[in-house]
Amino acid sequence: VSDQKPLGCWSVKHGQIITCPVVCNFETREYIAVHDDKVLRIWKNQDINLDKVFKATLSADVYRIHSLPNGGPVVLFKGGGVRTLDVLLEAPQQEIENIISDEVIKWSEACMEGQQPVLIFTTEKDGDFFVYVQKLKMNSLHKYKLEQQELSKPLSFTAYLKNQIITLLCLYSNDSVYKVLIPLQQNSEEEEQILSKSLLLKLSVSASVLKGTSFVVLDKDHIAVLGSLAASGEESKECLTIWNTKFQTLQTSKELPLGTSGQLWCYEEKFFFTHGKVLTVMMYKCETSSLAAAVGKLKDSQTPDVSSFVNWNTLADEELVVSFQSQQSVALKPESKMTLRSKRNTVAKVQPDTLSVGQILLNLKDASTTVFEEELRQLMSKAQMPDFQASIGCVITALMKRCKTNPKYYPRNFLLHIVQTRDLSYSLCPDLMAVALEKKDVHLLQICLQRFPDIPEEITYACLKVFLSISEAYLQRIDVNLESVICYIDVEFNNKEVKTEIVENGFNAELEQDIWDTKITKETHPTADGELCPVGPQKAALLNAVLQSAYSEAFLLPHLKNLPAQQAILFLRYLYYLYVKCSEKINTALPGTRSPTISQIMDWMCLLLDAHFTVMVMLPEAKELLSNLHKFVRAQVRFYSELNKIEGSLQELQRRNHQKDSQTYSIEVLELI
């Protein structure tokens, strides 16, 4: 998710339906899916076709599979029966008992109590709701009836297990969250016990009421609720909200104008939910619950300059966002502009250890450029700062906000220093490359392409377009890292041609011309003699950074089709030049550091031809280039075909060399047929 790259995709046959969420077996690194209710499929990453992977048809319909990190997968059937995956695979057609008769399962969750897997699920029948708790190793099952609530019913559930007590939270249709406590150790043998519930939270603030659809527990004092917030007389708006259950307050909220599916997930301090047509991931950090934090947040909920919980920057960048504060800090109450102005000249006197990152950035909002940069340098020098990487991301976000506010301000050297010395990613500072593209800061873009693992394809394409459009004369005045090209590129310098050593990769042009009647030209630029690179070393180094960046072909191809034809031809000339250079070497690798591999070169060449082949065929200036490329590739295919013919003889020669006595001298003649 952080790299925004699809790692795998599998599909069932037409007419088949995946009927429960796919899970990963943490122990075997396998995926487990169920389609058409009863057909179990298990496969690994390297498997491509689901028809050829493990298949087992079960005797009963599956409701859900739960995968536990230390307990293995657990299968819950629609009739209430439970099996571990290992037991189920021993006899897939084993009979599964029907426990719940006419009840319908509404929700389920699995957790670990020590080494004991525990499964909790709720059912509904004729308006009554029931809770089942099953301990798998002890094969014990307890059934409870949920206390009824007049004129409302539960919409969503979540639960967690701590100190032998299951805490079940229920989101009801009356805009309230109730808490139910279920002791794990039960001595009573009663078939059905009634569970009483207590009101945990009322989802209303002022005149607004939240109609929740799903929710998750963040810690003992906070929950996140996804739903529609409606005020009297106003249209409801979908929102993600965070509530303090201890003080009954709305901590923070964010409107989601593109709509959601109503589902919310939480994993490792990140929210996952759909917003429009994309999956949105938001980091959050819970602060220590205190009355000052709760009241302060509630009072100033309409001024979201600082959110100590969630990095709303994932959705919009208009706000100063501070998403990570110290675990021991309280929520910061935004101060008036007058107070901030009075602190402008004394900001350096504030003890940094007593302030969170959010407070420091907020205090610096109106500081002078000199004070602003100096304070940020001091802030980044604190190696023990909590959530260091995320805090650096917030620092860059603050810098980018100032760049947008003041177009004349652009701390190029400061930004270069941060990117070169910190392990950052695009997702931590998404505005950085956008501003660099606007400023045409090609050196910073080059460093970002080399260091960021998660650059979106749209940004990669934008960098490529900028690199190809900038003139060579301008680039010669720019500081660019040339380490990826300095060892192989051929350029004209003082009217002299500088060439690298050429080692033929098993063939030469004259031999190929004689045998195949194919003229192999090493001329990548139609107007140049010899093996000159079609671009200068600075532009070549920038293009190499693009070639080595991660991408997904499906996402990059639509953008690449928009590349102007002349730029596409120039890029293809350079790729052809690199391809010829790689083929000259015995190991088909370019010398130097950070040089693109032959696989990367060929992948980009194929991608570029897929995007522009029709246009290139129609352009006269591309005709010779395509012809040369075709001839060169054809010659290589024939050469490797000839090598394949003598593969058996070469293997025999290698086998004989291993068997030969190294202490004796002999001359052996082998005839290759």
TrEMBL record:
Q: Where is this protein localized, as stated in its record? A: Nucleus, Nucleolus
Q: Does the keyword rRNA processing apply?
A: yes
Record domain Nucleolar protein 11 C-terminal: where? 360-672
GO terms classed as biological process: maturation of SSU-rRNA
Which keywords accompany this UniProt record?
Answer: Activator, Nucleus, rRNA processing, Transcription, Transcription regulation
Q: Name one GO cellular component term.
A: nucleolus
- Report whether Transcription shows up as a keyword of the record: yes
GO terms for molecular function, please? RNA binding
Give the InterPro entries listed for this entry: NOL11 (IPR042859), Nol11_C (IPR048897), NOL11_N (IPR012584)
**Nucleolar protein 11 N-terminal domain location:** 1-285
Quote the PANTHER family the UniProt record gives.
NUCLEOLAR PROTEIN 11
Official protein name in the record: NOL11 protein
